[in-house]
Amino acid sequence: MKSAPALQPSAATLVRDLLARTTFPPPGVAVTCAVSGGADSTALLALAVAAGCQVTAVHVDHGIRAGSAAEAEIVAGSCARLGAAFRGEIVDVPAGPNLEARSRSARYSVLPADVLTGHTADDQAETVLLNMLRGAAGNGLAGMRPGPRRPLLALRRTETEALCHAFELTVVDDASNSDRRFTRNRVRHDVLPLLSSTAGRDLVPVLTRQADIIRDDTDLLDELAAAIDPTDARALATAPLPLARRAIRRWLTGLDQIQDQIHDQLQDQLGHDRLGHDRHPPDLATVHRVLAVARGDATGCDVTGGWRVERRQQRLSVTVGPPSRLDERLG
After folding, report:
1. 229 and 147 in contact (C-beta within 8 Å)?
2. Inter-axis angle of helices 121-134 and 204-225, to 10 degrees?
3. pLDDT at res. 322
4. How far is CA 190 from CA 126, 198, 229, 270, in A?
5. Which helix (H) or strand (E) holds 227?
6. Do residue 16 and residue 162 come from a single domain?
7. N or C end: fewer C-beta atoms under 10 angstroms in the chain?
8. pLDDT band of 266, cuts 50, 70, 90
9. Do residues 174 and 238 both lie within one domain?
10. Cα gap 200→170, rounded to integer Å
């Protein structure tokens, strides 16, 4: 594998300045980067190499657009120039509703759990707005958590584009990023610019800063809620409402993870492809139904994933929903 190309002084300065705001693992650590070929993921690749990591780039071809195989060749060419390893993956995503979510699930099903992604501050701001539109609570408004897996969250999209230009790297122009059928694209191209224009300032730094503050608050509340036993009806009923909600949400999320494991095991037994899971946290109505059971307002309730929560002698317990519900999830 050849070494990364030498840079002009101005480009080297740009790399140094951007690296100072990234959160890559230490030099020498082996990392896998998800690289679609766009400016953000290509900049992720270039900066990971510059950070001294042992980089493998993975391009996932969804087979949705004509010419997607050529995009993999572009990524492979960038890897060859920068001195990174390359691996191509192909997944099958049939046409139909929820194409964006299904493509994301299929993509992550062939990527390692610790894969690095090229999400930027602009993506963070869009995510906060999307979660707000979805009615998410604090955890959703906290956006994506910074760290080694998302090392570019403090960078702007204009900066990743400038870096690719400095490296003279070819990038893929994905036309689907302008398709207004996808809600994220409408937020990116219409909602966020309109809000910034209305506010008279760039709202990306504002939204990312608010996400950081909300994340700190929710982390503290989650830590306090972890001390509550969600199966103790009296403890839930007497706890402060924000903590009781979090204790229930954590409990129900754990149940969903168990059901996902069952789902994967059945898929393996039946020979189905595993496309991963794209779940949202339990909604507020579900959490309040469980809280009503804990308070004695109801003896039981149905919750997400086909589970049922019931109260007996001040203890909450769950039963698995009918097998038919699991069969439906297998399609």
Report:
1. no
2. 60
3. 53
4. 11, 12, 44, 44
5. none
6. yes
7. C
8. very low
9. no
10. 34
Q: 69 with 170, same domain?
A: yes
pLDDT at 39: 96
pTM (predicted TM-score): 0.83
- Please give the residue range of the domain that contains residue 60: 9-119+155-178
User: Could you tell me what percent of the chain has a pLDDT over 70?
Assistant: 82
- Quote the CA–CA distance of 179 and 177 in Å, as a whole number: 6
Structure tokens, 247: 């204790």
Same domain membership, residue 111 and residue 21? yes
Question: Would you state the pLDDT for residue 82?
Answer: 96
The total number of residues shown for the chain amounts to: 331
**Same domain, yes or no, for 291 and 159?**
no
For residues 79 and 162, state if they share a domain: yes
Q: Give the helix ranges, DSSP H, for the chain.
A: 9-19, 39-50, 68-82, 99-109, 121-134, 138-141, 157-167, 183-186, 192-199, 204-225, 233-238, 241-270, 284-295, 323-329
pLDDT value, residue 257: 56
The reply to whether 99 and 240 lie within a common domain is no
- Taking the C-alpha atoms of residue 235 and residue 251, their distance in angstroms, rounded to an integer, is 14
DSSP state of 39: H
Q: Count how many domains the chain has.
A: 2
Do residues 163 and 253 both lie within one domain?
no
CATH at 81? 3.40.50.620
Structure tokens at 75: 């990524």
Is residue 162 in some structural domain? yes
